[in-house]
Specification:
The chain is 42% helix and 0% strand. It is elongated and about 65 Å long. The chain starts with 5 loop residues before the first helix and ends in a 15-residue tail after the last helix. The protein has a domain at 29-66. It contains 3 helices and no strands. By secondary structure, it is mainly α.
Length: 66
């Protein structure tokens, strides 16, 4: 049996219904809670996690840039 052409496969993908991804529920933090967490952070990666950023890494180890 012959395979479908690329054009037919693309059209089939485009016409397929798209389901929106369900995001995990986000925790709503107060300003006081954020300040407390930032004060208790011991590394730049902890600060990045609180701010919602990805950790900074380098060839040898994590880099402190915040």
């Amino acid at each position: 049996m012959a395979r479908k052409s690329i054009l037919r496969r693309l059209v089939a993908k485009a016409s397929a219904p798209v389901r929106p991804a369900k995001a995990a529920p986000r925790r709503v933090a107060s300003t006081e809670d954020l300040v407390e967490r930032l004060l208790n952070a011991k590394s730049s990666n902890e600060i990045a996690a609180i701010a919602g950023l990805s950790p900074i890494t380098g060839p040898s180890d994590s880099k402190i840039v915040y």
